[in-house]
Amino acid sequence: MSANKKVRVRFAPSPTGGLHLGGVRTVLFNYLFARHHQGDFVLRIEDTDQNRFVEGAEQYIVDCLKWCGLNPDESPQVGGPFAPYRQSERKASYRQYAEQLVQQGNAYYAFDTPEELEAQRQKTPNFRYGLDNRQGLQNSLNLSEDDVNALLEKNTPYVIRIKMPVDETVNFEDMIRGHVSFDTNLVDDKVLLKADGMPTYHLAVVVDDYLMKITHAFRGEEWLPSAPVHILLWEYLGWKTDMPQWVHLPLILKPDGNGKLSKRDGDRLGFPVYAMNWTDPKTGDVTKGFRELGYLPEAFINMLALLGWNDGTEQEIFSIEQLIEKFSIDRVSKAGAKFDFEKAKWFNHEYIKKSEAASLKPEILKLLKEQDIIIADDEYLLKVIDMVKERLTFLQDFWEQSSFFFNTPEAYDLNAVQPKWNDSKTEFFKILSSEFAAFNTWEVPEIEADFKRLMGSNSLKPGDLLLPLRVMLVGGKFGPGVFDIAALLGKEETIKRIQKAIIAFTEK
Ligand code: GLU
Q1: Which protein residue has the closest C-alpha to ligand 1 atom 2?
Q2: How many CB atoms lie within 10 A of CB 394?
Q3: For 478-487, how does the pLDDT look when each residue is reduced to its tens digit (9 = 90+)?
Q4: 415 by DSSP, 3-state: which?
Q5: β-pair type (245-249, 216-220)
Q6: Is the peptide bond before 84 cis (omega within 30 degrees of 0)?
């Protein structure tokens, strides 16, 4: 790649279902790299395998990217100079390259029927179409030219396969893994063009990366075994000097044990592995996503960036602008990154804590509406959000942490107060509420000062009174500072709650 070529990267998903964390991280690294180099980020939909097509999967991917704020510069939706960006719509452009490879002797027609191939599989354990057995099968390597032409004339279905070279080594430099080499004898003769005229992924990915002038190909490490086929195609098609630099990203691993983090691990351990909820259109099964859990997109991005990358310091919180500035492939680790849900929670907590109440409000209102909770007083809601946000891991925790601000407690944690409840406490709270009633203003310092003064003059200790006051206002032993709660609830409501609770605490 020449030094002054504009950076162009692509995320090239097959629309077969929900987007896994690993997929979103691939999007993110593409995006960060493109933005860092003032390059272009392309979304290309690789939908040539009609059998795996899933209704709604493309829209889901588009929505995910939008939610994450990782918007492509070119895509089926926004168009661009290399449109169309859906491979099924580019069908007509691939055949010529497959035919070129056949002419050059780098590929061949294979007429074997599915039944014949199945019979081979039954006969030979670990059957692979390639070096070991291609000479005995129904293909243009064995059949005479006349036979091949006759078959073609009769419209006999065929596929075009790459002819893997014998005893060669394919070498390449991966920007993360360094030098990689493959023995061609170990790779089978992959299908390039299918009987329905559609290219397979292997042909389409190479042709489109070339035509779309992709300079860096980021993808998950699971694609590494396909790389030798792709590299040979780049070479055979005469495009080697334009080949993108390869960036095979390490896997995201299970939190426990080894291996790639899967949807099943999420179900087993109780956390989502998809970006957003995904509903399988056939079965109706819902796979949970981070978005619906009340995860903030900024936190999601930050958490994902740190799965396999760091800037060389201890810093963990990065805005998207900082990530763009600091991202470099040199600092992506070669080893897989273990997913840690506790750490993921920490990121979200940090982001909620530092968010403005106003920016959290719309999502909170949406979540409340889903539970049929309507909050009319906007000003008050904002104050409540401000007060409880540092206690939230997910936005969904909001109601649990704050319902007492909207509803007077109906029940109390009596075990926390009754054993030590006595007449002097009843007396204290009665006087306190009548003193409060005389207040003209209602601010934290004066509420607290009055409480403490009265406490001192009754020779009572904070330990005796603060917990009962909290239970009176909240119903339980949790929540923000108790005087802050009182101030926000307002004078009337505070007095009302104290009086109501005195009765409940005194009852046996
Ligand atoms: N279509 C492949 C996928 O579904 C893309 C692999 C690549 O980026 O080359 O992930």
Answers
A1: 13
A2: 18
A3: 999 999 999 9
A4: helix
A5: parallel
A6: yes
